[in-house]
Amino acid sequence: MHSKPVLAILGVLVLFFAWGVIGFMGKMEITRQNRKVAENKIAELEERKEKLSSEIAKLKTESGVEESIREKFGLAKEGEGLIVVVEDQRKKETKPPGPSGFWSWLFFWKK
User: Fold this and answer.
1) Residues 29-55: tens digit of each pLDDT
2) How far apart are CA 83 and CA 58, in angstroms?
3) Which of 32, 66, 85, 86 is deepest in the core (most CB within 10 A)?
4) Which domain holds residue 42?
5) Is residue 93 part of a domain?
């Protein structure tokens, strides 16, 4: 007769333990996902670091500085030509398409 309260207490303890394990597993999954995000961010930053390092190395050369200035300010070397593309400011008039097929035949008298 003494074993029923002990079994009930043991059952409650097992339930609390199981609930804690399930919560812990959920937190582990979230941690795993956060780790993947952090690893991806590190990879992006490493790639950016390499790119910036190569750009810095390029700017340490005379030709790299010249290329950078030419790109930023649109300059040309002496003797080189520079082409500037200008968009036409005049608007072309276009007529909206009229009805076609059966409707154009039916309303031919409106023309």
Assistant:
1) 999 999 999 999 999 999 999 999 999
2) 26
3) 66
4) 1-74
5) no
